[in-house]
Design a protein that fits this description.
It catalyses: 3',5'-cyclic CMP + H2O = CMP + H(+); 3',5'-cyclic UMP + H2O = UMP + H(+). It is a single chain. The protein has 239 residues and is an alpha/beta fold. It is 21% helix and 27% strand. It is built from six helices and 16 strands. Strands 1-4-5-6-7-8 form a six-stranded mixed β-sheet, with no helix packed on it. Strands 9-10-11-12-15-16 form a six-stranded mixed β-sheet. Strand 11 (161-165) and strand 12 form a beta hairpin. Helix 5 packs antiparallel against helix 6 (225-238).
Length: 239
């Protein structure tokens, strides 16, 4: 029997004094579920473990039930709770692109430091115990809790990936795209070391039939997704 794949967005928030938008910073990991298989895409910022556990519980999933974690890239707000997840559930499989793997596991220092207002949240973060079990490649098909295509979308980091779910025409964009004020935008320029490469990655996304986008920063966008991506990619070519 074929099981349907369910994509659940988990909205995790931190109170951050000085943060624009009322001092609340929200990020959006994604839970992929099908039957007894559950995969978490990105893990949140250090200090969000309680909120992450509560949101998973609301979706009927515990940390012990996770089959795997897929990391879109190395930034601390994406790997921040991975050490604790692995401590609680050491049997899970961890996926990431090899270009970011040395940074994720601690062989190399993270490429980017935290903005001043977030430094305190990452002060005690350690990558001890982090491992990558499954290096993923551009164009690889993951048969996890459903079928997902890995799209290597570098620029924000060298090993940044996005995931495309053909059945629902959904893109899990990581930080390749953001939503601000209800509008789809390119990556955060201040946190993207290679902006031209990031916009070339958006050009790659135009080859997919995308109806819904889940952005780690800004959540769900599903209004004319393909035309909006094409517009952003074209704008990047002109800059």
């Amino acid at each position: 029997m074929t099981m349907n794949t369910k994509l659940t967005t988990l909205d995790l928030s931190l109170n951050v004094p000085g943060m624009p938008g009322g001092g609340v910073w929200t990020i959006t990991p994604t839970l992929i579920s099908s039957g007894d298989a559950h995969y978490l895409v990105d893990t949140g910022m250090p200090g969000m473990m309680e909120a992450l556990t509560a949101q998973l519980s609301s979706a009927g999933v515990s940390l012990e039930m996770l089959s795997g974690v897929i990391i879109t890239h190395q930034d601390i707000d994406h790997i921040g709770n991975l050490p604790q997840i692995l401590e609680i559930n050491p049997g899970i499989e961890v996926f990431a692109h090899p270009d970011d793997a040395p940074y994720i596991v601690g062989e190399l220092p993270l490429l980017k430091s935290l903005p001043k207002m977030l430094e305190a949240f990452g002060a005690s973060f350690s990558r001890n115990g982090i491992r990558i079990d499954h290096p993923v490649a551009d164009g690889e098909t993951l048969h996890t809790a459903g079928t997902f295509l890995v799209i290597h979308t570098p620029g924000h980091t060298p090993g940044h990936i996005s995931l495309y779910h053909p059945d629902s025409k959904t893109l899990i964009a990581g930080d390749a795209l953001v939503v601000r004020g209800g509008q789809l935008q390119g990556p955060n320029e201040a946190q993207t070391p290679d902006l031209p490469e990031a916009y070339r990655s958006l050009k790659k996304l135009t080859g997919f039939d995308i109806r819904k986008i889940i952005c780690y920063h800004g959540g769900i966008f599903e209004t004319d997704a393909n035309p909006c991506i094409s517009t952003l990619a074209s704008r990047g070519e002109k800059d």
